[in-house]
Amino acid sequence: MIFRNPAGAPELACDACGCRWFDRMKGTCYECGTPMGEQGQAEFRRALAEFAAAKRDGGAPGAAKGQQE
Fold first, then answer.
1. How far apart are CA 49 and CA 55, in angstroms?
2. What would the 3-class secondary structure string for the chain be?
3. Of the candidates 7, 13, 55, which has an alpha carbon nearest to the alpha carbon of residue 30?
4. pTM of the predicted model as reported, rounded to 2 decimal places
């Protein structure tokens, strides 16, 4: 699950419990230990790349949304 923080940056959250404390080094949720699949990791990397590109171009995608994708 990908959320946007108030600045518009993507944050990765656990698909199982919604916890935002996700260990990207181990690929698991800190709260429940659920592993993050390759698809979820790829979606998060894509969201980070889009955010970085928007910042370079002077915008912040999702900043106004303030909700999950």
1. 10
2. CEEECCCCCEEECCCCCCCCCEECCCCEECCCCCECCHHHHHHHHHHHHHHHHHHHCCCCCCCCCCCCC
3. 13
4. 0.69
Sole residue written with tokens 């698809």: 39
Residue 28: Cβ-neighbour burial (10 angstroms; 0-12, 13-18, 19+): middle
Taking only the tens place, the pLDDT of each residue in 16-65 is 998 888 787 888 999 999 998 889 889 999 999 999 999 888 765 554 44
Tokens of 59: 């915008």
The residue type of 61 is: P
